[in-house]
Amino acid sequence: MNYHNVQFEASYGTSSQLPPSDLPEIAFAGRSNVGKSSMINKLFNRKGLARVSAVPGKTATINFFHADGIRFADLPGYGYAKVSKGEKRRWAELIEGYFAQDRDLRVVFQLIDMRHPPTADDLTMIDFLIDRELPFVAVLTKADKLSKKQREERLAALERELPCADQIIKIPFSAETGEGVDAVKAIVAEIERD
Ligand code: GTP
Ligand code: MG
Question: EngB-type G domain: which residues (predicted)?
Answer without folding.
Answer: 22-194
